[in-house]
Design brief:
The complex is a heterodimer of chains A (382) and B (570). By secondary structure, chain A is mainly alpha-helical. Helices cover 63% and strands 7% of the residues of chain A. Chain A contains 10 helices and 4 strands; from the N terminus they run E-H-H-E-E-E-H-H-H-H-H-H-H-H. In chain A, helix 3 (122-153) crosses helix 4 and helix 4 (161-181) packs across helix 6 (223-259). The longest helix of chain A has 37 residues, at 223-259. The radius of gyration of chain A is 24 Å and the shape is globular. Chain A starts with a strand and ends in an 11-residue tail after the last helix. With 570 residues, chain B is of the alpha+beta class. Helix content of chain B is 31%, strand content 31%. Chain B has helices spanning 13-17, 33-45, 48-67, 75-84, 88-94, 104-133, 158-171, 189-215, 472-491, 524-538, 543-551, 566-569; strands at residues 148-154, 175-179, 182-187, 217-224, 228-230, 238-240, 253-265, 274-285, 293-298, 303-305, 308-324, 330-335, 339-340, 347-359, 362-373, 396-404, 424-426, 428-429, 432-433, 435-438, 443-445, 452-468, 495-503, 509-517. In chain B, strands 4, 6, 10, 11, 12, 21 and 22 form a 7-stranded antiparallel sheet that branches. In chain B, strands 13, 14, 15, 16, 17 and 20 form a 6-stranded antiparallel sheet that branches. Chain B has a 5-stranded antiparallel sheet with strand order 1-24-23-3-2. In chain B, helix 3 packs antiparallel against helix 6 (104-133) and helix 6 runs antiparallel to helix 8 (189-215). Chain B is elongated and about 130 Å long. The two termini of chain B are 44 Å apart. The chains are: A mainly alpha (382), B alpha+beta (570). At the A-B interface, strand 1, strand 2, strand 3, strand 4 and helix 8 of A face helix 3, strand 1, strand 7, strand 8 and helix 9 of B. Chain A: Residues 99-123 are annotated as: Disordered.
């Protein structure tokens, strides 16, 4: 009787410990973000202070050099009928080198991004910075956990739902950190990201946990690396798109309530939360950009799955429940992208479609794996 | 996140819309009579709104197929489901809920969707060809109405500024054209190319699907180790063909199963999980069955032989038994495949001895029902005959015997895995059902002098699917083009930039640059600013401009004084 071995138990154990440690640190980071939001609500919300500073600096910088300054102010028509301007300055004869750029604001405060979770509170800002440092630490532990899990069995560590969930949570965090590194204004995403990661990991270690083992023959394929990695990346990014969509809907409701003369946010939330968030139009744009960026990748995931299915089962498409729900998810995201371009469907209606699409994605992951039997039954969930 | 808002105001929406060649939608029937209505219906069908509704319906219609068992996947499950739900079963049957993806209503939705798509995409393609052959649309008379706008005065001559702007736009990859004292330019045509490519490749996907469903065939075959198979109708266990691939079209080839390797996890909480399955075969193609080539077939690694692909689908055990009749004549000998029932390969099967001969002067046949357990438990009085592990660690065969008429001579086809005991009697011993558990090499003397059964050992079998499916390449090409098209259509931004340099009454030149982009995530303002900064090398701004513009920022587009119209001056 040949014995299937190749599980390094020490590494597998280390992986589990690292994942638990990462979870604990994410949890603390989450609390730090909560402190950030709490402190931030006490400080006065200084809208658009940041932008104005930049603009002032720009003008100052532009006036300093003795050389001739090239300066262009572009008037940009805004959604509300107002305008904003974009100023760009460069030194003459310095080629196309842009020295500084800034942005001034017109008369529609709705289009102005809020200052972020910390508001103008220094304590809040400190809490936010601590939260980000902790998130980085947790991400390192998390990477260690995923890598040791893979090393313990010498394969890609996404053969069952536990491993998949860990990888999915990691991509979410890494995508968020990558945006921060790219100097994008996404610190306000910190709380939703840490909450999602703690929930996903919690579910993974409690309900979905499977000991580190080799794979069933059905998963012996290099398509595992391609198809499943793509699916994991889609999951992380779709989540970010979802968070932005929810916040867009909230901020949009808040704007409407303010326009109607009310002073609080929707569902009895405090106005200061919404004031600190980016403008509804920015959130809307962000969620569109993420979803539009991920949609081709999701298409690729499905097609890679179909190619694998052709090799494994003889037919590239058999309407297996997983295939069906991937298709449904794809069609609804397609609906969303079309709706964005169709008069009468823009804005909130399209946003609801994006939420529905993400719900389908989640059902495809948890629902189909656990409640529906099909050929993708690799969950390892008893 | 972008730090500029580039969304055009509502009034300019229509102008912006013209950046795409999307059809303009109409809400009510135009004209009267049947043709008017038909035309209206056609416009409705090809409108984006109806396409959206159809897309949504398609996703809704796909749901039941994932929750209700489907004939195309598991007909047995469908039958069991119907038995368990006798009231709604017939209704579901009528509604084609067991064949969702080939049902009339599902087909209707996707066919309508494809017609709608064709009605939208074909005119758009022609229109786009026209756009490509024409020059970028000329600058609007009033550039201040455009979503992004910048202007400055310069001492440079209008003609020279226009020429410089033209050159700079070309360098930035714009298609540009000077006419009427202004430069018109456009960039990002790949967006529409991608859009059209994506939608057209959906038709390629559909064609691939269609071809496959019209000209593919699939057969199943169970082969015991050491036995061979030739790809003909008589040797296949089952076959489903299609309009253009019937039983006479089977690709000529065959193979012999030399051995089968299975490995299982032996420790941990996933004990018994399969780790490797490999079928070792030698195959031939064409007429020459003596030129054999070695090959392995694994899960995920089918073998392509002579136009067909052979997939490893399942495996199990075939106990080898020898049956001797009362006279001691060998009446049955060989491996009989048993079908696995669970993950540990507890297998059930029947042995039919049709040539038993005579017993007590009467023609008699024997039948055995049995369990094969690759790893038997120490004692199964409580659990019943179940296997503990899928590997053959301690194999056992459990048999009960029947005598009488198997019914094989009636001419009706029989399931080889089931025993029809209507005309048979179960053999008894001491007033109880005669039952035996055998280890390899052990024998059983049947009660009432029916002879002996010996359990000689076991062999493994593997089941294969032989599949001929054309159209995969078309579908794959369609899929790849679809992704490329999507990437282009979602990431390339189509935008127009106009530059107009015109003489002002005070002898200077007014340079206006304006931009229009359809997609909201485009950074047209930055792009325009960069172009303008560059252009100031050729057309330096006069001093007053720098301070002047900074002060008048908050003015809205509508209120801003319209600069002198160059057309009226000329």
């Amino acid at each position: 009787m040949p014995v299937a071995t190749g599980v390094d138990l020490q590494l597998a154990d280390l992986s589990n410990k690292l994942i638990y440690a990462a979870m604990a640190v994410y949890l603390i980071a989450m609390f730090a973000h909560i402190f950030e939001w709490t402190f931030g609500s006490k400080g006065a919300v200084a809208v658009r202070s940041a932008e104005q500073t930049t603009l002032a600096e720009t003008v100052a910088a532009a006036k300093e050099p003795a050389k001739a300054v090239k300066k262009v102010t572009v008037t940009v028509a805004a959604a509300g009928g107002g305008t904003t301007t974009l100023t760009r300055t460069a030194l003459a004869d310095a080629g196309a080198t842009v020295v500084t750029s800034g942005r001034g604001d017109g008369d529609s405060p709705q289009d102005v991004d809020g200052p972020g979770a910390a508001g103008s509170s220094e304590k809040g800002d400190l809490a936010g910075r601590i939260a980000i440092s902790l998130t980085v630490l947790a991400a390192l532990l998390h990477i260690g956990g995923v890598v040791t899990r893979g090393l313990s069995v010498s394969r890609w560590p996404w053969g069952n739902m536990y491993e998949f969930s860990c990888a999915f949570a990691l991509t979410t965090v890494l995508a968020y950190l990558a945006l921060l590194v790219a100097k994008k204004n996404v610190r306000w995403l910190g709380l939703p990201v840490t909450v999602a990661v703690v929930l996903t990991l919690g579910l993974a270690v409690s309900v979905l946990y499977t000991a580190s083992e080799q794979l069933v023959p059905a998963l012996h394929s290099y398509w595992l690396a391609i198809h499943v990695s793509a699916a994991i990346m889609c999951g992380g990014a779709f989540y970010a798109g979802f968070a932005a969509t929810v916040l867009y809907l909230g901020k949009d409701s808040y704007d409407r309530r303010i326009a109607a003369g009310l002073t609080s946010g929707p569902l009895g939330t405090s106005a200061s939360i919404w004031q600190r968030l980016p403008a509804a139009s920015s959130l809307d744009k962000l969620s569109y950009r993420i979803n539009a960026l991920v949609f081709p990748l999701w298409t690729f995931t499905i097609i890679a799955g179909a190619i694998w299915a052709e090799a494994a089962w003889g037919k590239y498409w058999e309407w297996d429940p997983k295939e069906t729900w991937s298709f449904i998810t794809w069609v609804i995201y397609a609906c969303y992208l079309h709706a964005r371009a169709t008069a009468g469907w823009k804005g909130r209606k399209a946003a609801y479609l994006a939420l529905l699409a993400f719900a389908c994605f989640l059902f495809n992951y948890y629902g189909v794996n656990i409640f529906v039997t099909g050929k993708h039954s690799y969950a390892g969930v008893g | 996140m972008s730090d500029t808002s580039t969304r055009p105001p509502e009034g300019d929406e229509l102008t912006a819309e013209r950046l795409s060649s999307a059809p303009v939608e109409q809400d009510s029937p135009a004209g009267i009579g049947v043709f008017g209505w038909l035309r209206w219906m056609w416009r409705q069908l090809t409108s984006m709104r109806v396409a959206l509704i159809l897309l949504f319906m398609l996703s809704l219609a796909a749901i039941p197929g994932s929750l209700i068992p489907q004939n195309s996947q598991n007909p047995f499950k469908v039958q069991n489901w119907k038995l368990a739900h006798s009231t709604v079963g017939p209704i579901y049957q009528k509604l084609q809920l067991f064949d969702v993806y080939s049902s009339v209503w599902f087909s209707a939705i996707y066919l309508l969707l494809f017609i709608s798509l064709a009605g939208c995409i074909i005119p758009r393609t022609w229109q786009f060809v026209g756009v490509l052959r024409a020059q970028p649309p000329a600058a609007p008379a009033n550039l201040t109405r455009m979503p992004v706008y910048a202007a400055w005065h310069t001492e440079a001559k209008p003609g020279a500024v226009n020429v410089a702007a033209h050159a700079r736009l070309k360098r930035r990859g714009f298609r540009a054209n000077i006419s009427d004292g202004s430069v018109a330019s456009e960039k990002g045509y790949l967006r529409e190319v991608g859009n059209l490519l994506f939608h057209l490749s959906l038709f390629a996907l559909l064609a691939g699907f269609g071809w496959a469903s019209l000209a593919s065939g699939q057969g199943g075959k169970l082969v015991i180790e050491g036995q061979g198979y030739a790809n003909t109708m008589t040797q296949l266990d089952d076959f489903t063909g299609s309009a253009f691939y019937g039983s006479e079209d089977l690709d000529p080839f065959g193979f012999k199963l030399d051995g089968f390797t299975a490995q299982y996890q032996t420790t941990g909480d996933q004990i018994g999980s399969a780790r490797e399955f490999t079928a070792h075969i030698r195959y031939w193609t064409g007429d020459d069955s003596t030129r054999l080539t070695k090959g392995d077939i694994q899960v995920n690694h089918p073998l392509e032989i002579g136009g067909s692909k052979v997939f490893l689908i399942g495996h199990g055990y075939a106990p080898v038994v020898t049956v001797k009749n009362a006279k001691g004549e060998k009446v049955y000998s060989g491996p009989t495949p048993f079908l696995p029932q669970d993950a540990n390969l507890t297998s059930v099967g029947v042995v039919k001895v049709s040539d038993y001969g005579q017993k007590d002067g009467q023609r008699t046949q024997l039948g055995f029902r049995g369990f094969f357990l690759p790893t038997q438990p120490l004692d199964f009085t409580k659990t019943g005959p179940i296997s503990l592990f899928p590997g053959p660690a301690d194999p056992a065969l459990v048999l009960t015997a029947y005598a009488g008429d198997l019914g094989t001579d009636s001419g009706l086809p029989q399931n080889v895995y089931q025993l029809d005991d209507k005309h048979m009697t179960q053999l008894q011993q001491d007033g109880q059902i005669a039952r035996i558990k055998l280890k390899p090499g052990q024998g059983w003397t049947l009660p009432n002098g029916y002879g002996t059964v010996t359990f000689d050992g076991y062999q493994q079998w593997a089941s294969f699917t032989v599949s001929h499916r054309p159209g995969n390449a078309v579908a794959l090409a369609g899929a790849v083009c679809a992704i490329l098209g999507l990437v282009g259509s979602l990431n390339v931004k189509r935008r127009r930039i106009w530059v107009r340099a015109s003489a002002t009454p005070d002898g200077r030149t007014l340079v206006e640059v304006a931009g229009l982009a359809r997609s909201e995530s485009v950074k047209i303002a930055e792009e325009l600013a960069e172009l303008a900064v560059d252009l100031q090398d050729d057309a330096p701004a006069t001093e007053d401009q720098v301070t002047g513009e900074t002060d008048e920022q908050p003015e809205s587009a509508a209120e801003r004084p319209v600069p002198t119209d160059p057309n009226s001056e000329e």
